[in-house]
Amino acid sequence: MQFTSINPATGATVASYDETAPEAVDATLAAASEAFREWRTRSFAERAVPMRAAARALRDQARDYGKLMADEMGKPIKDGIAEAQKCASACDFFAEHAEEFLAREVVSIGAARSFVTFEPLGVVLAIMPWNFPFWQVFRFAAPALMAGNAAVLKHASNVPGCALAIPDLLRKAGFPQHLFGTLLIGSKKIDSVIEDPRIRAVTLTGSVAAGRAVARKAGEMLKKSVLELGGSDAYLVLEDADLEQAARLSAKGRLVNSGQSCIAAKRFIVVAALRPQFEELFVQQMRAAKVGDPMSDHTDVGPMARKDLRDALHAQVEASIARGARCLTGGKKPDGPGAYYPPTVLTDVRPGMPAYDDEMFGPVAAVITVKDEAAAIETANDSIFGLGGGIFSRDLDRAERIAAHSIDAGSVFVNGVVQSHPKLPFGGVKASGYGRELSHYGIKEFVNIKTVVISQTQSGGAQVGYREGRAE
After folding, report:
1. Which residues make beta-bridge pairs with 411?
2. Are 279 and 367 in contact (CB under 8 A)?
3. Count of beta carbons in the 10 Å neighbourhood of residue 339
4. What is the pLDDT of residue 398?
């Protein structure tokens, strides 16, 4: 079997790579396990040296990595450059703060000494998607490696060049040669890797179906897992919203990564009084986005990553229209090469339509009309997903109350676009998965949170015991 990357803008073959043979899979796991034994003994300061070197390499070679992403999955090059630079920021952040985040926590219970320490687990399997082929790897790898773990990557089959470029970058930055390995294998072979005793935990970013399969196998093997799955983020446009800001940021949020993002804005829930004006402004913003060659610095929306994904999205659009939605702009598959799809706005979207019920993983926006704030909140939560969400309102106290207490999601941004940041925990609830990445919460996902209690010995050699916080 071979893994072939195909340029989604042209349909041309970029490169082909051989599948990792079974004996090479075993060798990769063995080497990572061995590298871990030495890496875990290094101080945080020692681990930070190659991590900072990786950050420098990501910045220095950002355009090269951006071109690779454009070639393999169609990301506009300016977005790929920004993605590489964001990876660098995560490397620098965890190089700087890992020791602080994983410092011993002293807990007094009456013993001579008692504390909680955070020890690395071992080799972590990362199963990653194509839409952010560098960022979604580094947002896991930077904290995991700084915590003292090793990693093995199973990347999406359509970005094999990115999958191989990342361990090469890390080795050149000074990480031990086998600490981070890549397996070019199909999804049917993931179970056997999870079952391997050298794998201690699993993290996956992907579809709900993939998350269920990995969670099932990891649970069977009693291995920790973190899942970041799909999303159908709702943005509430309340009656006191700044409509020009709401339309501009809604379009930006919907078209991030050409619409192929779990935390892209997808459902726009608008109070009825504002709907005509919002739709007019929103359509203007969506039409203004420049669709074109991902290698152009002026392109806002590139092709979708594969033609089959484009065709599946178009089928969702057609099914929604057949059930009563109206298309305000876009909605037509363009002729010619490439997996392009135009920025599209559907309105009159209701339950029972794919645009309402399902994740639309591409540049298609669903406008849903509601009568008031209470109905907007109910509609936002009427989804199997709970990854992110947004609120547009001039009343910041009101918006804060709704964001903090009423929206069932892992992140809610007021008058802004949902995005991940190294300083903030990232993840979702419901069918969007569980666990958190990034921040001090994320770095603790793949460590052994260990309790250590040390008691004084008596003259006869017996230990001093303790109960209820007092020595006995």
Report:
1. 388
2. yes
3. 27
4. 98
388-402: pLDDT as tens digits = 999 999 999 999 999
Low-confidence stretches of the chain (pLDDT < 50) are: 460-472
Could you tell me the CA-to-CA distances from 7 to 12, 91, 291 in Å, in that order? 5, 29, 16
Query: What's the pLDDT at 466?
Result: 44
What percent of the residues of the chain are helix, what percent strand, and what percent coil, each to the nearest 5?
A: 40, 20, 35
CA atoms within 13 A on the CB side of 417: 19
Q: Residue 232 and residue 255: Cα distance in Å, rounded?
A: 14
- Pairwise CA distance, residues 200 & 152, whole Å: 11
Domains along the sequence of the chain with CATH:
2-229+432-451 (3.40.605.10), 233-414 (3.40.309.10)
pLDDT of 464: 46
Q: What's the Cα-to-Cα distance from 1 to each of 15, 183, 249, 388, rounded to whole Å?
A: 14, 13, 43, 38
Place of tokens 């666990």: 435
Complete DSSP assignment for 364-432: EEEEEEESSHHHHHHHHH-SSEESEEEEE-S-HHHHHHHHHHT--SSEEEESS-----TTS-B--EETT
Give residue 221's pLDDT. Answer: 98
Taking the C-alpha atoms of residue 374 and residue 24, their distance in angstroms, rounded to an integer, is 56
Task: List all residues 6 or more positions away from 52 whose beta carbon is below 8 Å from its beta carbon.
Answer: 91, 92, 95
Half-sphere exposure of 78 (CA within 13 A, CB side): 12
**pLDDT, tens digit, 9 for 90 and up, residues 132-148:** 999 999 999 999 999 99
Please choose, from the candidates 282, 248, 267, the residue with its C-alpha nearest in 3D space to the C-alpha of residue 386: 267
CA separation for the pair 347, 58 (Å, rounded): 41
The structure's pTM equals 0.95
DSSP 20: P
Query: What pLDDT is attached to residue 460?
Result: 46
Residues 6+ apart with CB under 8 A from 326: 346, 347, 348
Biggest CA pair distance of the chain? 88
Residues 72/159, Cβ–Cβ less than 8 Å? yes
What is the Cα–Cα distance from 104 to 86, expressed in whole angstroms?
A: 29
CB 225 within 8 A of CB 211: no
The residue written with tokens 């949020």 in the block is: 253
Please list the active-site residues: 228, 262
CA distance 302 to 284: 19
Do 466 and 444 form a contact (C-beta atoms < 8 A)?
Answer: no
